[in-house]
Design brief:
The protein is mainly beta. The protein contains 2 helices and 10 strands. The chain has helices at residues 3-15, 67-72; strands spanning 20-25, 28-33, 87-90, 95-98, 114-115, 120-126, 129-134, 139-144, 151-152, 157-163. The strands form 3 sheets. A 4-stranded antiparallel beta sheet has the order 3-10-8-5, with no helix packed on it. A 4-stranded antiparallel beta sheet has the order 7-6-4-9, with no helix packed on it. Strands 1-2 form a two-stranded antiparallel sheet.
């Protein structure tokens, strides 16, 4: 492709208002991408909005003291407060958590194990790919926060590690 053909191609793309074009002819590959002069930002779609559940009303302890012990007991679903100084290992991807390399084999780590930097803690399967999650600091596994085979989200806490001193 010579310079005259290239110039004609560019003029044609401008005339037809084509923003991006790619041509491959033998061992010659041409890609033309025109920038846009103005950027129009659209308003958020009004069809989608957040719905938040209202918190349950606080019990009136003065009129009903029998409610106080039940309200004070921790809920089974609430996450335990992380111990001060613990390092949380987060999932870098969305997928399925596996604690061992194959069914029936022992887990990579258990609570109480000492781990080194780079040691495999678990596998997260995403799109049929097995991704090994490694420890990013040396220390002791204090808590495993996910069950084997459980789906996990990006950034979700997987393990709590007490750093080695």
């Amino acid at each position: 492709m010579n310079q005259k053909e290239l110039k004609e191609l560019i003029e044609f793309l401008i005339e037809k208002d084509i923003a991006e074009f790619e041509l491959e002819r033998g061992d010659v590959k041409v890609r033309i991408k025109r920038g846009t002069e103005t950027v129009v930002q659209s308003a958020p779609d009004a069809r989608y909005f957040a719905v938040h559940a209202a918190p349950p009303p606080a019990p009136d302890l003065a009129t009903n003291p029998a409610v106080a012990p039940a309200a004070a007991s921790p809920s089974k679903e609430s996450a335990p407060e992380p111990e001060a100084g613990l390092h949380m290992v987060h999932s870098p991807i969305v997928g399925t958590f596996y604690e061992c390399p194959s069914p029936g084999s022992p887990p990579f780590v258990k609570v109480g194990d000492t781990v080194e930097v780079g040691q495999v803690l678990c596998i997260v399967e995403a799109m049929k790919l097995m991704n090994e999650i490694e420890a990013d600091l040396a220390g002791e596994i204090v808590t495993k926060l996910i069950s084997n085979g459980q789906p996990i989200e990006y950034g979700q806490d997987l393990f709590a590690i007490r750093p080695r001193k």
